[in-house]
């Protein structure tokens, strides 16, 4: 669906994309993460042709994006919704009119527009603000208008640039649920740029980490989060280290979906007959279950016993260097 | 003095009507033309929606050429045009043509700079859902810059009132022309300042209306 | 620069020992009508008077008098006596004409459609000048030809002072030079021969000319501030403007448009 | 330091603040959370007098904010830095000039300004973008400029409106560390409005939840998160419910800082000799340690044993109604 | 014809210089005054930094009064002022005064609307760190709207060039006045269009410079 090969782009002397290769399949919810300034927004903007790339190839449905300029860039864009990082709402139109605008541009009839706008307003919970101008909206309300507008035309591809950064957790959940629903029901492809890992975990099927103009780490979300590749650590920081107990040894064990309900901890406690504490944990909700890692702390002499046990169970583990 | 007041009274109405007539129609036409020119300029400019150096340069030069003419010379120079359009080169009707010709580029420039001020992000957003260039211009750029455009048109109307006094050269009459020919030229200060006071009122009303609309739309 | 009055005497500045003194400058104000004639007279004036003549062309009929009155210029030459009188009366000034000589402009009714006065129909559109000085002349001209009657005692009449207009003429005030290009749009215009001449038409083609007496009455004259009326140099100016050479110049270069009133 | 009593404010017919009562002590890092549109930004804007309140009292250092209008609002504001939700950077000034502006306005000398700006640029990691205009910056870069600008004058109170929403996790951490440092070293008071609970946990000492124009839930961060009052659940949503196993019983147990390293789980496993799985967990880093809750799943017959054991240990627990 | 070209040649230079002289100084002064008026207007307006209805209304009315006068009447009406300021009421130097008087309100209006367009968020940000009203005006509002202000001043300069042709009434000369008196009134098309062509060049240069600065500063 979306495929980029050796994509390169520079702004003046600074090269933003050195060599981006990625493939997003139809129906994917692809998460794109990276440090601030990594080029995520720029990449999204290349996808719908708002930004031009220097060399390499970027293809949507097998056609080079730059070729769309000559054959119907409008139709092309009609099928690609975009939620902008800075919302980009019309100040002089009401919430209603902002959401209606794409449909107006495509000459939908008034009744259809009205129906769809009201539907979208309900979806993002802004029925009451329908006739207000964006100026008086709160940050999150603006963002919701931007979301509604991007969905108005029922796009086949949806580009979300930090689409939930200004939303409270509950609203975020409901928006994410919405995105997942439309992904599942309508099979639309979604590219999600975000700094909220919880967003990636909750809805993305795949994730790519943009670092130094390249996209070297990419794959299934659960794999990446389990493997904790260096580029992920670069992005997240290894926060826990600082608060892990310095006494004893810390072992990180990785849970997979299928390990969750298997009583590992309790059985291990009894079988190995050693004491340990759970000192850190990230059991997090992913698309379809819980997944994560736990760090247990134990006396140095117990390490062998525990790790052996984990190994026999086929559970991944890693000894954490606590820097002493 | 008393006599002058009587004169003043007797001419203010008809001349006021002529002024209205000229100002109304030239505002109407020059706003239309101004908009059209401004739109073409802002679409074809270097960072516009559809850059086209040739069209931009030609229009840009044309505007500058028109704006370079001292108004009275312009009035004379375009007499053939005036005559072709309204059938005569004198009178209030004829004055509308040069007034429109001189003010259209003026409005065009003002609207052009208003349009250029529109946030590029909004234009991109519109592009992102496939709006056509004309839709971007009308539904985004113009809509967003309406308050500034209102100020511009207010300014232009007041300029038209100013220019219309020079249209006296075409025998068009109007308050400004009366102030000049019956007042200034004839050393009749009553008529001169009397008509100017009426013009001040008109200008105040235009400005107040403009400010009101601006605030309303902002 | 200053006017002659300001720096003519008591100049004790350091330039005193400079032998080659700058010539003193006389500033003369005029308008488009007379700028060529004044330029023509400049050489004669400078050689006879020893002054330098700076010609200032005003694009207006009122400001040359204002400038003269306030001393920004020393003399002007562009107006006829009725206008001067009206100006003095209305603005309370004391400008005076110098001498009796002047230069008159031919004046008449021109038309591209009509051949004689009789053909002027009822309700005809007649173009007249829109500046007071020339409008006055135009209205008076129409009056003396029996078309209209003007209220008594008005110095610079306007359309509004027309009390009788049996033919119901539609008098249209138009900028002087523009009268010519408007000839197609009106039935006739009342205006100066010079406009016809300059625009390449025949100044002698008027349906009727102003009579000689009126033409002379409206001759344009040299005007000074009263306190300056006896200055020496003005004689030279008058001479330069009204000598035989000037007569010849008008005959040859401005044929039929200007008439020496001397 | 900051105290509001019965604060009320309406925009037209909609009442944003019904009755806000809160007290922020000097040196606090106070977190203000609430749903999108709850009035958080408006509250911050009331603190520095950008917005007027209708009735009630809002006092800074014992003086009513509205009184500052007559006695030195400028000096007052000088001491209150604000990071705006929408950044509000000058488009026509470079990054450097944007940060320098507050100091210029207070007539600092050039050298001091230069020194401070460079210091701040380093702090937010934007040395390279010093001479760029905001227009070409990425979202996070803009936000960092806004942060630097707010810190320029060394304010005594810092108001942060979603100050890290556009930042990647690592940059967020470093900014939070920075905020905490200045809070500790200089004793400045910080009010943090955010939707990222991790931010609240990491740096806030107190938190208040704004709901329906009132601030009913407020207190120490750890208490609130442990207690999970209804207003917090309203804000976060009870996300886990949907993915907890429906077989058996789910027990949520709450960890306190001091429980962390006490081997509870392993001891319980052995002592009670029942099997259980850890099916959900939120062990999260707070200012000074790890705190959180774990949900364990066990057979129905074991519930009594486990809960008794927990009770004897003094550990809070709650049976989760899994809706069957 | 040949003769006319010679005349044209011989007058173009000196008159061009006069035009430059008038345009330069009136631009200079009217920009200063325009700025000052615009600043006061935008500070004192209803939603300004320090609303003051009286000051706003007085200034607003004053501007409208000035803009209501036909230019020639204005020139004559302010002759006493002109003389007091520059010692004479005629010539290019004297023309600077009425040109400044008539264009200042025009520039003021343009700058005022530019200033009003500045994002309220920026003004709040500046308030938030305690910037004074004047600092907000100079360091934020003007700075942010410089491109639009540049367009406005470009427009104003071209208007000044236009008005300067009417300064012929003060015997000020300049290309426009020459076009009128030596060209139009003398039915000398060579001179008339010759000078207009030179004016077109000047206007083009002014406009190109303005556009360049605009793009540079944008
Ligand atoms: N028009 C431009 N001219 C020059 N540099 C630019 C331009 N647009 C973006 N950049 C630079 O390119 C880099 C990537 O920007 P981009 O907005 O894609 O980052 P991002 O990954 O979206 O970051 P964030 O998460 O902070 O939004 C940044 O360093 C930015 O400063
Ligand atoms: N000037 C205004 N006029 C009218 N209503 C306003 C105005 N400013 C804000 N509001 C409304 O007041 C409410 C509170 O807005 P505020 O910006 O304080 O919310 P918030 O808590 O910061 O939300 P978010 O988290 O989405 O930024 C919103 O419903 C908003 O629409
Ligand atoms: Mg971005
Ligand atoms: Mg907010």
TrEMBL record, chains A, D:
Q: Name one GO molecular function term.
A: ATP hydrolysis activity
Q: Which domain of life is it from?
A: Bacteria
Q: Which GO terms describe its biological process?
A: amino acid transport
Q: Does the keyword Translocase apply?
A: yes
Q: Name the SMART domains on file.
A: AAA, NIL
GO CC field: plasma membrane
Which terms are listed as keywords in the entry? Amino-acid transport, ATP-binding, Cell membrane, Membrane, Nucleotide-binding, Translocase, Transport
- All copies of the ABC transporter domain together span 2-237
- Protein family membership: Belongs to the ABC transporter superfamily.
The identity of this protein, by name, is DL-methionine transporter subunit ATP-binding component of ABC superfamily
Q: What is the lineage of its organism?
A: Bacteria, Bacillati, Bacillota, Clostridia, Peptostreptococcales
Gene of origin? metN
Automatic annotation (TrEMBL), chains B, E:
**Species name for this entry?**
Acetoanaerobium sticklandii (strain ATCC 12662 / DSM 519 / JCM 1433 / CCUG 9281 / NCIMB 10654 / HF) (Clostridium sticklandii)
Q: Where in the cell is it found?
A: Cell membrane
For this protein, the parts annotated as crossing the membrane are 20-41, 62-82, 94-111, 148-171, 191-214
Keyword Transferase: yes or no?
no
* Coiled-coil region list: none
Q: Print the keywords alphabetically.
A: Cell membrane, Membrane, Transmembrane, Transmembrane helix, Transport
Alphabetical list of Pfam families matching this protein: BPD_transp_1 (PF00528)
Q: Which GO terms describe its biological process?
A: D-methionine transmembrane transport
Q: Which InterPro entries match?
A: AA_ABC_Transporter_Permease, MetI-like, MetI-like_sf
Which Gene Ontology cellular-component terms appear in the entry?
Answer: plasma membrane
Principal subcellular localization: membrane
Query: Member of which family?
Result: Belongs to the binding-protein-dependent transport system permease family. CysTW subfamily.
- Topology term for the membrane: Multi-pass membrane protein
Q: What is this protein called?
A: DL-methionine transporter subunit membrane component protein of ABC superfamily
Residue ranges constituting the ABC transmembrane type-1 domain according to the UniProt record: 16-214
């Amino acid at each position: 669906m979306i495929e980029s090969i050796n994509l390169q782009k520079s702004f003046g002397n600074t090269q933003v994309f050195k060599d981006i290769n990625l493939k997003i399949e139809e129906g994917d919810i692809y998460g794109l993460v990276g440090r601030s300034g990594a080029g995520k927004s720029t990449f999204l903007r290349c996808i719908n042709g708002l930004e031009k790339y220097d060399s390499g190839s970027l293809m949507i449905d097998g056609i080079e994006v730059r070729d769309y300029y000559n054959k119907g860039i409008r139709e092309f864009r009609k099928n690609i919704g975009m939620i902008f990082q800075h919302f980009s709402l019309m100040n002089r139109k009401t919430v209603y009119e902002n959401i209606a605008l794409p449909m107006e541009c495509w000459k939908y009839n008034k009744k259809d527009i009205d129906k769809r706008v009201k539907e979208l307003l309900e979806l993002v919970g802004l029925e009451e603000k329908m006739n207000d101008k964006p100026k008086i909206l709160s940050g999150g309300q603006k963002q919701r208008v931007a979301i509604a507008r991007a969905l108005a035309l029922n796009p086949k591809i949806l580009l979300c640039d930090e689409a939930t950064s200004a939303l409270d957790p509950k609203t975020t959940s409901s928006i994410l649920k919405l995105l997942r629903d439309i992904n599942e029901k309508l099979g639309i492809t979604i590219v999600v740029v975000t700094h909220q890992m919880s967003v990636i975990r909750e809805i993305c099927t795949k994730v790519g980490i943009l670092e130094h103009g390249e996209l070297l780490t990419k794959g299934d979300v659960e794999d990446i989060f389990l493997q904790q590749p260096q580029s992920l650590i670069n992005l997240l920081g290894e926060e826990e280290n600082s608060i892990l107990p310095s006494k004893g040894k810390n072992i990180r064990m990785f849970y997979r979906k299928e390990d969750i309900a298997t009583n590992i901890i309790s059985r291990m406690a009894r079988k190995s007959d050693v004491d340990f504490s759970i000192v850190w944990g990230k059991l997090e909700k992913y698309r379809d279950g819980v997944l994560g890692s736990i760090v247990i702390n134990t006396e140095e002499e117990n390490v062998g016993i525990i790790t052996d046990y984990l190994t026999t169970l086929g559970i991944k583990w890693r000894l954490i260097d606590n820097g002493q | 003095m008393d006599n002058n007041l009587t004169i003043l009274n007797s001419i203010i109405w008809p001349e006021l009507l002529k002024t209205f007539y000229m100002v109304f129609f030239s505002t109407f036409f020059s706003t239309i033309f101004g908009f059209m020119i401004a739109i073409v300029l802002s679409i074809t400019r270097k960072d516009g929606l559809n850059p086209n150096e040739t069209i931009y340069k030609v229009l840009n030069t044309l505007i500058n050429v028109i704006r370079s003419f001292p108004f009275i010379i312009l009035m004379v120079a375009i007499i053939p045009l005036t005559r072709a359009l309204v059938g005569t080169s004198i009178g209030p009707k004829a004055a509308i043509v040069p007034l429109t010709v001189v003010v259209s580029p003026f409005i065009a420039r003002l609207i052009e700079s208003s349009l250029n001020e529109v946030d590029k992000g909004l234009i991109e957003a519109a592009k992102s859902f496939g709006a056509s260039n004309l839709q971007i211009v009308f539904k985004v750029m113009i809509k967003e810059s309406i308050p500034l455009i209102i100020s511009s048109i207010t300014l232009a109307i007041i300029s038209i009132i100013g220019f219309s006094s020079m249209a006296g050269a075409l025998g068009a009459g109007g308050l400004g022309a009366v102030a000049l020919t019956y007042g200034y030229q004839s050393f009749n200060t009553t008529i001169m300042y009397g008509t100017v006071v009426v013009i001040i009122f008109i200008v105040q009303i235009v400005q107040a209306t403009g400010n009101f609309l601006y605030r309303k739309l902002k | 620069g200053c006017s002659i009055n300001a720096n003519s005497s008591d100049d004790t500045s350091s330039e005193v020992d400079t032998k080659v003194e700058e010539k003193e400058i006389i500033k003369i104000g005029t308008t488009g009508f007379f700028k060529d004639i004044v330029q023509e007279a400049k050489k004669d004036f400078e050689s006879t008077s020893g002054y330098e003549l700076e010609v200032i062309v005003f694009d207006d009929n009122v400001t040359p008098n204002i400038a003269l009155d306030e001393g920004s210029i020393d003399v002007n030459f562009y107006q006829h006596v009725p206008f001067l009188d009206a100006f003095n009366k209305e603005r309370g000034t004391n400008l005076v004409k110098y001498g009796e000589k002047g230069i008159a402009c031919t004046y008449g009714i021109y038309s591209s459609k009509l051949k004689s006065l009789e053909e002027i129909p009822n309700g005809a559109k007649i173009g007249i000048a829109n500046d007071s000085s020339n409008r006055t002349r135009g209205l008076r001209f129409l009056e003396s030809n029996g078309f209209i009657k003007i209220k008594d005692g008005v110095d610079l009449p306007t359309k509004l002072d027309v009390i009788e207009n049996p033919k119901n003429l539609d008098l249209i005030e138009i900028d002087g030079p523009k009268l010519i290009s408007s000839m197609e749009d009106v039935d006739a215009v009342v205006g100066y021969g010079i406009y016809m001449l300059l625009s390449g038409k025949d100044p002698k083609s008027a349906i009727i000319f102003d009579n000689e007496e009126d033409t002379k009455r409206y001759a344009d004259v040299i005007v000074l501030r009263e306190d300056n009326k006896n200055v020496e140099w003005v004689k030279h100016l008058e001479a330069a403007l009204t000598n035989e050479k000037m007569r010849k110049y008008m005959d040859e270069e401005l044929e039929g448009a200007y008439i020496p009133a001397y």
